[in-house]
Amino acid sequence: MKKLILLLLLIFPLFIFSQPVQLFQQFNGRYDFTAVGNTLNAQPNFNGYCGQLLQSSANLALNPGQTFVSAHLYWGSIGTGDFDVALNGTPISAQRIFSHTFNGSPYFSAYADVTALVGATGNGTYTFSDMDVQALLPGYCGTNFGGWAIYVIYEDPSLLLNQISLFDGLESVSANNNNLSITLTNIDVSSDVLSKIGFLAWEGEAEIANGESLFINGTLISNALNPANNAFNGTNSYIGPPANAQNYNMDLDYYDLTGIVAQGDTSILIELESQQDFIMVNNIITSVNSELPDATIEIDDLGVLCQNNNIDVEYTVYNVNSTNELPANTPIAFYADAVLIGQTTTTNIIPLGGSESGTITLNIPIATPNNFNLRAVVDDIGNGTGIVAETDESNNEFIYPVDLSTAGILLTPGPACLGRPVILDSGVTDPPFNIQWFRNAIPIPGATNPTLVVTIDGIYSVEAVDGICRVDSNSVVITFRPQPVANPAPDMYQCDYGSTAGVFNLTDNDGDILGAQNPADFVIKYYDTFQKSFDGIPGTEILGGVHIIVPPSPQTIYARIEDNTGSCFDLTDFKIYFSRAIAGI
């Protein structure tokens, strides 16, 4: 969602265009985060500095026992954006972009997942380069900035079960827009132990300390690096002095949330104030202790539709993006569109990363349309209400489109050609079903398998019974047609005297291809590609059998002989030659 804020400063209009900071990704487990990054400003822009470095570097140093999980690169600067950059010489293209307009001037930031690159590189120096905004710098001397940061998510078995939440967007405060409130949602706090919050913000400087404050859940935030009246002052909390205070016009900071968040919190309120400095918040990352399951469900398969409208549904409940076990007896509801048609529960405790499969028999109401959405919802007591607190309450539903006209046994025989059997498949593979095949409404002795091999004409059907569930198929008429044989055809030749076009009458080969077969029973068609001859789609053949050769010579022609229904066919091919005549030869 984008919003346009119209402010009035004196009598001049000021437009601010921004993108709200919202949840982007979450990670649940024994995880934490760190960050590396650097500014591209060699000095603060407070005194009109208009330069920018072409590259800058930072060092990643995960400790022993910390296992890399993922990496997320952000970069930002002036103008409408440079979205193709490099990290350690590897080209990186933006996967998400953010834009902001302030006082009529555009600013941007961008995001790319660099998990593969950082995972392969590991600890060491990372150099960001190839962001080119040099031509724009003279127009941004007072608000010039550029920089980059990588958030690194890592796993450590010594940690508590944590929830890492990454939020991003691009919003600002300034002298003309003094207050900014951002509510971080979808957060589940079990305790405040070792909880923390990080920010990436652009354009702040130490030289402007005029009512620039950061509040989290109503608490004024400050520390030795970030004073209470100058929260965004060009600092980097992830490195030591003196460089931590030389992150000019870029803030990469984190703060302890102990005593600020509490057990049961599901959101965090961020409030920024500035009476003068222009500050853009690009992203916020949180780490809180969270011990909650996350129930999701998938429909794996549907059985056949019984005559009494019963149908078996196979499903699996997962507990993947979680920090706690999913309790047994978690409710599951099934809906035909919005109509509740069945309920069940999980049987066992599902561990972190685990799953449990089950089967339920549903009865489809008579008034249900042929086409509907079968909705499976886990943690639902049948009215949309859940009873289990989860890390994500919005991913409990799975939708499976159903077409009742194909939910029974639908026999679809292929072509019936003499000498080649037809395989009929009931599609019923569940062991409890007893199957019986019929020919001309008479049971076929011993035909009790899911498939039937048919070699003689007749009207075929099948019946499957499992207790009170009975399923009858459609009836199909199978009439075996004569199988044509495509006899070899000779190649064709013409001389190119320089005045002829190389026109071939391909039907001259009809007699060779047909051989002794009855011409009343078969049709011969010619094609310029094998695929066209195999598909036999009407209108794709060489009409009338008259063909002008396509250079170079020779060209392969494909012939198809088929019965009068077009279902039984055989293929052959030959070449046509159009050779230039040479005097004396």
Automatic annotation (TrEMBL):
<protein>
    <recommendedName>
        <fullName>CARDB domain-containing protein</fullName>
    </recommendedName>
</protein>
<dbReference type="InterPro" id="IPR011635">
    <property type="entry name" value="CARDB"/>
</dbReference>
<feature type="domain" description="CARDB">
    <location>
        <begin position="294"/>
        <end position="398"/>
    </location>
</feature>
<dbReference type="InterPro" id="IPR013783">
    <property type="entry name" value="Ig-like_fold"/>
</dbReference>
<dbReference type="Pfam" id="PF07705">
    <property type="entry name" value="CARDB"/>
</dbReference>
